[in-house]
Amino acid sequence: MRHNRAVNHLGRKSGHRKAMLANMASSLILKKRITTTEAKAKALKPYVEPLITKSKEDTTHSRRVVFSYLKDKEATAELFRTVAPKVADRPGGYLRILHTGFRSGDATEMVLVELVDFNEAALAPKKEVKKSTRRSRAKKAEAPAAEAPAAEAPAEPAAEAPAAE
Description:
Blueprint: H1 14-31, E1 33-37, H2 38-55, H3 60-70, H4 73-86, E2 95-102, E3 109-115, H5 120-123, H6 137-164
Helix pairs in contact: 1-2, 1-4, 3-4
């Protein structure tokens, strides 16, 4: 029984688990979206969101705290330079988890984890699509009739070829 066991250990020892979460967090910050399993994504969300909140305050102390979790200089710089200004007015909920289906090998639920403010498809203004008028049936009936003589034209030279022999 799992009495009072809140942390999903993900089948790893604590050092391996911390290294994996740090690696996934820095990949997410650098690439803005990653594909992973549902269990890892649920473990990653409470790991990354406090770091993003801490990055809103750009001080030496907060940079050192974030670096101690991420262990990646480029990811820390990207978080403070790019991500933090974009989420400055958001009170939380920086990650989105989208279910993508099951992995073919072991049927594990796979998800797409992305930073909410960096999804270009969702943020782009939707263009109004002008509805085209519907064509009448009469025009469609005329189109095959126009194609019929074109189909007969190749048949005629084939008929003449045996006569030439």
